Amino acid sequence: MDNNILNVKNLQTVFHTPKGDVKAIRGIDINVSQGEILGIVGESGSGKSVCMKSVMRILPSTAEITADEINYKGENILLKTEDELRKYRGKEMAMIFQDPMTSLNPLKRIGKHLTEVVMRHRNCSKEEAYNIALDMLKKVGITNPEMRMKRYPHEFSGGMRQRVLIAMALCCEPSLLIADEPTTALDVTIQAQILELLKEINEERNMSIILISHDMGVMASTCTKVAVMYGGIIVEEGTTEEIFNSPKHPYTKSLLESIPDINKSRHTRLTTIEGTPPSLSKMPKGCPFADRCKYKLEKCENELPKHIVFSETQKAACFLAGKFEEGVDENGK
Question: What percent of the chain clears pLDDT 70, i.e. is strictly above it?
Answer without folding.
Answer: 94
